[in-house]
Design a protein that fits this description.
Aminopeptidase, eight-stranded mixed sheet
Length: 143
């Protein structure tokens, strides 16, 4: 799958289910996306569609954007492509993610794409010598 972004930051987003390099699907239920600017990978998103029968309508993802490519639409392009894959191609109606509660940029990005905070996990992770909280966010489509 190749899509174009409205900004010049990302020239293409590749999904490894055809002869496209630079990345491929590695395990059932997983799809890897990369954002490429020129010949440089500037972002990556791994999408996991749950395989348990009662949760096959649910997916989650983790992503990262190179520091020099932040605020250029890379994250938005990756999230938008993941949503498109979920809702139009693999019958996912709920996408849930975890985000550190102090990551205002990520929370704003996900909110712009229709995600809402459903709860907060206290002392979720140990980072930089202290415990930090994380929000559970979800986007639910359909009825």
């Amino acid at each position: 799958m190749e899509s174009t972004n409205t900004t010049s930051a990302v020239r293409r987003i590749c999904r490894g289910d055809r002869n496209e390099t630079p990345i491929s699907t590695t395990k059932e239920g997983f799809t890897n996306l990369v954002a490429v600017r020129g010949d440089e990978v500037v972002g990556q998103l791994t999408l996991e569609a749950f395989q348990h029968p009662r949760r096959r309508h649910v997916a989650t993802f983790g992503m990262g954007v190179k520091g020099s490519a932040r605020q250029l639409g890379v994250g938005s392009a990756l999230v938008g492509t993941a949503i498109d894959i979920c809702e139009k191609w693999i019958n996912i109606s709920r996408i849930e993610i975890e985000v550190y509660s102090d990551n205002a940029a990520a929370i704003a990005l996900y909110s712009r794409h229709g995600f809402a905070i459903e709860g907060t996990c206290r002392r979720y992770a140990f980072r930089d010598g202290q415990f930090v909280d994380a929000h559970i966010m979800a986007r639910v489509s359909g009825g």
